[in-house]
Amino acid sequence: MEMLSIRADQFIESTLTERKNDVVTILVPENYYHSLGSEEQKNLRRKLPTLLRRYGKFLAGASRLNARAGKILYQKDQGKMIRINFRVESGMWNILGVLALSHGVSRCFLFNYMLALESVEVGDSIVETMNAGAPTFHRYYSFIWHLDLQSKRIFRKLEFTPNPIFPIFYGDYWIRTS
Fold first, then answer.
1. Origin, by domain of life (predicted)?
2. What pLDDT digit, counting tens, does each position of 126-150 carry?
3. Which residues is 159 bridged to in the sheet?
């Protein structure tokens, strides 16, 4: 009799930051790109770390951009897109990835969303409040994509530590269990 062994403890592990920076591609709307001056166009390649430092915590705790857990949103109805290739530290790219996955959007979508937040100066109003007394990034991020085949449900969840919001403030705390 033959036996098939399936292990549920499989995972992939590697270092978060590597020695060399990765070359990545981001798509931005052509009309946005051409609205920037030539210096701003060059600086667009260096904006990812700044945007993540400014909006990372906000995005981790904000309502999800995509309400459908089984779909990934990409930019649509943006017209022509321009490819921007640049080098970025793999840690920053991975943080962008986990935030994008938890929101159910692509990395490009989230990058453009952060650019939109920046253009309306949302960061000016939240950055001090979000980063007061705490590091810019959480220490741990855990993304869970849960598929419950029996009840035909799917959900995405981002957990992070430290979580500055004490559990008493969550609605579940007030629900009585009988």
1. Bacteria
2. 777 776 666 667 777 788 888 888 9
3. 142
For 72-123, what is each residue's pLDDT tens digit? 988 877 789 999 999 998 889 989 999 999 999 999 999 999 999 998 888 7
CA separation, residue 119 to residues 19, 72, 112, 126 (Å): 33, 24, 10, 14
Joined tokens for residue 16: 């978060």
Q: What's CA 140's distance to the chain center, in Å?
A: 13
User: Which residues, 6 or more positions from 73, have their beta carbon under 8 angstroms from its beta carbon?
Assistant: 65, 66, 104, 105, 106, 109
- Strand pairing partners for 87? 23
Contacts of 57 (CB under 8 A, 6+ apart): 130, 131, 134, 136, 137, 138
CA 90 to each of CA 28, 93, 94, 96, 143: distance values in angstroms, whole numbers, following the listed order? 20, 5, 6, 10, 17
Over its C-alpha atoms, the chain yields an Rg (Å, rounded) of: 19
Nearest to 55 by CA among 158, 108, 124, 143: 124
CA distance 85 to 22: 10
